[in-house]
Amino acid sequence: MLGCRPWNLSLVTVIIITFSNMLFTMLLLQSEDCGPSYVAPADDAGEPSVLTEKPPAVRTPAPAQSCDPRDYQQPSESSILRMDVRVGRWDARRLYKMFDSVVIGSEFPALSSSYSVSIATQSSVEKLYSLVQVAHQWTGPISVAVFTPGDESFFVFQRYLAYLRKCYAPIRERVTFSVAIPKDRPVFDQPQVIELTGDEDCLKPEATLNTFLVGVSKELATWKNRNVYPQNHLRNLARKNCQTEYVFLTDVDIIPSPNQANLLDEFLKSSQCEKCAYVIPTYEIDTRVRFPQNKTELVRIANKGLARPFHQKVFIHNQYATNFTRWSLDVLPGYGGNVDVVRSGKVYVSHEVNNFEFFYEPFYVARDTAPEHDERFMGYGYTRNTQVYEMFVAGHEFLVLTPIFTGHWGLQTKKGRPAWREKQNSMNRKLFDGFKKEVFARYNRDPLKMMKNQN
């Protein structure tokens, strides 16, 4: 019998102890202390910080696991956003949470040191494809603020950002991204490593984005239709993440003319004006033509009806004070002005805006000391023109530059504008009465006689 022999009892004891040790080892490896954790981007000291909360819904492989924080593999800069969705910067009314510079272009710091001007632009996720052409045209630094309401939008943004940085060196090198998230539709999923399938077409940025948006719920679209787009929050966010003395405020679908960053930088470095807003004329361009390579080509297609001043048919007062007719003169036959200078591409002041009006909304370059956009105005209407109006009251001069310009694809008509824009415009109109009184009290000036006009 086995139990009658002492050496057999010793063998059984050894076997039991061995299996017990193996079982305890397996349980230890499966303990919660060693479970998957979100790996935050490196802090200033270069050490990653570990957040011990459950990972987001599985859309991509989880990060590497380890019980020792020193063993974590830091995600590459292009694969994860430098942010924790629980910790952001609230706006004045706690309606939106801001996250500054969540992805920084590899050359952005160096470009910000060598250039005097940056582009500051803003976009929803659905319009980000426009950034591709902007980044290829503009060789200086670019700061982009993106609106991402909720986890669905946030995930599509991360995925498309990975695509943009993989496919386009100008975006990977020159562009810094910031994020705004609404309080009413927060983001819960932490940033994650995005792995693309490899089937994405780098020649089709718009089609690729549309593919990424296919799975988005109708409920998100309904929410967007019922809620305002915080344009001014995003403009301020993009601007304050620029590092240059001057900022060129645009929308994401406003495309600069070729070599504009270098030409503008040369001009601005010789400027001594503290309160000058340098207006860059903006044209709508028919999609059947190529983007104009210079001012002469732009004026030629405009004379053929294939380009026209921005918003000319939709709302003429938007850009009217720029005086596009005067701006075009130096390339028209018979005009004996600065034709040779225009051909050289050198930037100079064409003329001063001397018929400023309240609804004027130029795209301009100014020092970063200019007034911010008032974040009470949200959605459409009174968002840009109120900031330009305050600049005018504060004593800024508006000077139109040539031969540089910007373009916007498509000839716009009123039929293409949805009815909800007018509703938002009416809401903002009601806010303006208080705004103009504040501006008057701040500067003690009323050059447009707005205080006398209560309508």
Secondary structure elements and pairings:
Blueprint: H1 6-29, E1 38-39, E2 50-51, E3 89-90, E4 96-103, H2 108-114, E5 117-124, H3 131-137, E6 142-147, H4 150-167, H5 169-174, E7 175-182, H6 205-212, H7 218-226, H8 231-240, E8 246-249, E9 255-256, H9 260-268, E10 276-279, E11 282-285, H10 295-303, E12 307-309, H11 324-328, H12 339-344, E13 348-352, E14 364-367, H13 384-393, E15 397-402, E16 406-409, H14 420-443
Parallel strand pairs: 5-6, 5-8, 6-7, 10-15, 11-16
Antiparallel strand pairs: 1-2, 3-4, 4-7, 8-14, 9-16, 10-14, 11-12, 13-15
What descriptors fit this protein?
455 residues; alpha/beta; 2 domains; ten-stranded mixed sheet; four-stranded mixed sheet; 33% helix; membrane
Can you describe this structure?
Belongs to the glycosyltransferase 49 family. It is found in: Golgi apparatus membrane. It comes from Neodiprion lecontei. The protein is an alpha/beta fold and 455 residues long. It has two domains: 75-253, no CATH class; 255-455, no CATH class. 33% of the residues lie in helices and 16% in strands. The chain has 14 helices and 16 strands. The strands form three sheets. Strands 3-4-7-6-5-8-14-10-15-13 form a ten-stranded mixed sheet. Strand 5, helix 3 and strand 6 (142-147) form a beta-alpha-beta unit. Helix 4 runs antiparallel to helix 6. The longest helix is centred in the N-terminal third of the chain and has 24 residues, at 6-29. The protein starts with 5 loop residues before the first helix and ends in a 12-residue tail after the last helix. 37% of the residues are buried.
